[in-house]
Amino acid sequence: MIKSEKPPSILALAAVTGLAPFTLNIIVPSLPSIADDFNVTYSSAQLVITAFIAAMAIGQLIIGSLSDAYGRRSILMIGIFVFIIGSIICSMAPTIEMLIFGRFIQALGGVSGVVLGRAIVRDVYGREKAASALGYVTTVMVIAPMIAPALGGILADFVGWRSSFYVLIFTGIMLILMTFNGIKETNIDNRSSGDIKTLLFNFMILLRIRKFLLFTLTMACANSLFFTFIAVAPYIIIEILEFSPTQYGFAFIGISIAFMLGSFTAARLSERVGSLRLISVGVFGGILGSILMGIFIYYDFMNIYTLFGSMMIITYSNGIVMPNIIANIVSVKPEFAGAASGLSGSIQFSLAGICTYIAASISIESAFPMSIQLVLLSLIGTLSFLIGKSSK
Fold first, then answer.
1. Are the CB atoms for 237 and 248 separated by under 8 Å?
2. Tens of pLDDT, residues 309-325
3. Does the pLDDT at position 116 exceed 50?
4. What is the pTM of this model?
5. In order of start, what are the domains of the chain with their CATH numbers?
């Protein structure tokens, strides 16, 4: 049921929601070049990913609740402005430490689109319709991370890794204009107090709801499957298998297409089949893809086709799971949609940050530990969903 006179532009929502994934992925093919440029190890260069994810975890705690108190649109525009500042810092960074700091600032601002895109959809639609709408948003949004690695790889090969941040500065400016014109305020009649006491109180209410916790863990595990892979894949593909950053970027398009198809499946079927039934199917796809990847690596069939092919199964499944599980999470207490989106997102990216650090630390000599991590995450996420589905 539509709750506002003029629903926000799906294109604008997709664009702001895709800002953080685009920003994360555009720099991934450049990690070996960044390590060489600053004369640091690959694991040190990989901290530009870990710092970004950590800032996303922190930012989501604050942004969702601020939007519950002060409105979605104004907080979103402030977030994009902070993102532009972070991008400028990154473009001029003289050291790896300054680059990591700039990425942290980038993510603090850029994550506003992830949090508030979800909350805005929930402001406007009911649970099942929200799952469908989020599916369409995600289908369009995934174009950004689909082209990001390919664009980043081309820029790294032919211009240099800093040029990626010039692109991000321009993107941020365009998104401020798009938000101003295409997204109206949706949280008008249901605002909460913006003080820290109310913020913590809202979080405590959500943390006492078993369904919220278990569904959040399912979402976090599904998300961490992707981040575990991108923590290790550039090193494996570029350094071990000796493909170029551009080749890595174009191969990554297959993963994004798989996620897009999964999201489109969710958009078409969520209202008809039911969000919980679709999640039940999707979580088992994650297990299948993870096990296949482990088999390929263990029996020495590891190449760019088997790695990305098995990851496409995982990401197609995630495309089904994510919009549906998010719709259920922010529907646990609709009056706390911003806080629920922010808190669940913070937990989601906290686990992702831990997983990227672990994967990058244990999978340099062999990719097999990465596949074990993927299997464990998929099993935990599936079990959490099955328990959560029957919880109050």
1. yes
2. 999 999 999 989 988 89
3. yes
4. 0.75
5. 10-389 (1.20.1250.20)
